[in-house]
Amino acid sequence: MPTVPESTRSSLSQRLTAHARTSWPRLAGLDVRHRGQFAYVDGELADGQTIKLMRLRHGGSASTWGFALYLASSDKYEDTILPTGSFAGSPEDALDCACSLYLAIPEI
Predict the structure, then answer these.
(1) For 70-75, what is the mean pLDDT?
(2) What 8-state DSSP symbol labels residue 5?
(3) What is the pTM of this model?
(4) pLDDT in tens, 22-70
(5) Strand partners, 94
(6) Which of 7, 44, 56, 84 could pair with 29 in a Cys bridge, judged by C-beta atoms 3.0 to 4.6 Å apart?
(7) Of 42, 102, 94, which is closest to residue 68 (Cα–Cα)?
């Protein structure tokens, strides 16, 4: 199992953090952890609560990652199709997909 290069790890964290700041104000921060070819992304809410969001799979490109959504019902990550129709895409697209599910405010 190949590991993600350190430069790509740093770039991924910076990209996701910058995107979260501008697109997801409910997130106070992100925690990006790496294990092998995977990056696990958790969100931190303003009240200090941490929620698991997604897992990204590095495929050799810093701009395209495989996407798996965290499913609380099974406490597992499951490969998921992005709104673009692909199982892989930009980290920002993956974050938007996960946050749309877990952070969307329901309309009343």
Answers:
(1) 95
(2) P
(3) 0.92
(4) 999 999 999 999 999 999 999 999 999 999 999 999 998 889 999 999 9
(5) none
(6) 44
(7) 94
List of residues 6+ apart from 90 with CB closer than 8 A: 63, 64, 65
Closest residue by Cα to residue 33 from 53, 48, 62: 53
Give the CA count within 13 Å in the CB-facing half-sphere of 51: 18
Structural domain spans, the chain: 6-102
CA 105 from chain centre, in angstroms, equals: 19
Q: Cα separation of 37 and 98, whole Å? A: 20
Indicate the residue type of 22. T
Task: Tell how far CA 49 is from the center of its chain.
Answer: 17
Spatial distance between the Cα atoms of 44 and 23, rounded to a whole number of angstroms: 14
